[in-house]
Design brief:
The chain has 329 residues and is an all-beta fold. The chain has three domains: 138 residues, Jelly Rolls, CATH 2.60.120; 96 residues, Immunoglobulin-like (Sandwich); 82 residues, Sandwich (Immunoglobulin-like). It has one helix and 25 strands. The strands form six sheets. Strands 1, 3, 4, 6, 7 and 9 form a six-stranded mixed sheet that branches. The longest helix has 7 residues. The N and C termini lie far apart (49 Å).
């Protein structure tokens, strides 16, 4: 499965994705390496931690446009990147990169992606840090057609034991409402009280947000129940967040609101590596990067380029994740 781009294009057997497909593989110390990207949609910077990670390249054939759930599983901390039909080159890891993710659930990466056109795409699974090897699996699952274009749907753990759910859609037509549903096992879903949002029926990109004030301890699964005015019902893809993983570190963010810079104070230990991701009200990642944290230094983030509005600042420091709401004015 480990091929150069040229070899992939010339001869590897490509597997069309019509139903759920599982790819199994192993990272070994004889495999090629590259400097992986940081998280992002798309990623815009290269990692300062995963500078020489082993990787597997998985070409997948998308036969028709639509949403795909893509998730990984391994006993080690993995990282997943999706590349477009232009292919993947380890010498230029940001070229054609569409989305990159670290921890969807625990140490496993994953995301939902809306493929707008058929073709051959490329998944790259690697480790979060250098020198890690072991077995892994990547699962690709097509979802059903929705009466809207669901551009994103995310669940983020916020301060105060809250889960912020954000989704953005376009081309809404003849919709009635969105009902947020929750599950603790990913099988049985129930409506969250006071989590029914009336559809705006906008032709342009529109964002929605709901805060779950009472998430369960451990894994929480969320989906959207979408009701049309005709009475027909469909469901979004499922997103997951692990409540027990987060919130053990202290983050102070100021000034808030802010017009140009954010100051971040944390109780992290000396010289801790961490990621900062900024997510807009529509659930899209608009800024991300790797930073050094310690309890004696204030970290400054430039936000002058961001449009005015509400955002979540998500930090991952020493594998502890927090999210804090701030306002750009």
């Amino acid at each position: 499965m480990k091929k150069s781009l040229l070899t992939v294009l010339l001869g590897i057997c490509l597997i069309p994705v019509f139903s759920q497909t599982v790819y199994n593989g192993t990272l070994a110390n004889t495999d090629p390496t590259f400097n992986r990207p940081n998280e992002g949609s798309p990623p815009t910077t290269l990692s300062g931690v995963g500078t020489d990670v082993y990787y597997d390249l998985i070409p997948i054939v998308i036969s028709s446009a639509g949403l795909m759930d893509i998730s990984t599983n391994s006993t080690w901390d993995n990282f997943l990147i999706l590349y477009g039909t232009g292919g993947f080159s380890p010498a230029s890891p940001l070229t054609n990169a569409l989305v990159a993710n670290d921890d969807l659930v625990s140490s496993s990466a994953g995301f939902t992606y809306n493929f707008t056109s058929p073709g051959t795409y490329y998944l790259v699974i690697c480790s979060f840090k250098n020198g890690v090897t072991g077995t892994h699996s990547v699962t690709v699952t097509p979802t059903f057609v929705l009466p809207i274009k669901l551009k994103s749907f995310t669940a983020v753990k916020s301060a105060g034991n809250l889960i912020s759910l954000n989704w953005s859609v376009e081309s809404e037509n003849n919709l009635n409402a969105y009902q947020v549903q929750r599950s603790v096992d990913g099988i049985v879903f129930t409506d969250i009280v006071n989590a029914r949002l009336i559809a705006k029926n906008s032709a342009t990109l529109t964002g929605y947000n709901h805060i779950d004030n009472t998430p369960a301890s451990g894994l929480n699964y969320y989906r959207l129940k979408i009701t049309e005015k005709t009475g027909e019902v469909s469901y979004s893809t499922v997103v997951r967040v692990k409540n027990s993983k987060f919130g053990t570190s202290s983050i102070k963010l100021y000034p808030n609101p802010s017009a140009d810079y954010l100051q971040i104070e944390t109780d992290a230990g000396q010289n801790s590596n961490g990621y900062i991701t900024i997510i807009n009200a529509g659930g899209s990642i608009v800024q991300s990067g790797l930073y050094k944290f310690n309890s004696n230094v204030v970290t400054t983030i430039d936000i002058k380029h961001l449009p005015n509005g509400k955002y979540f600042l998500k930090t991952i420091i020493d594998k502890v994740e927090t999210a804090t709401l701030f306002i750009k004015k």
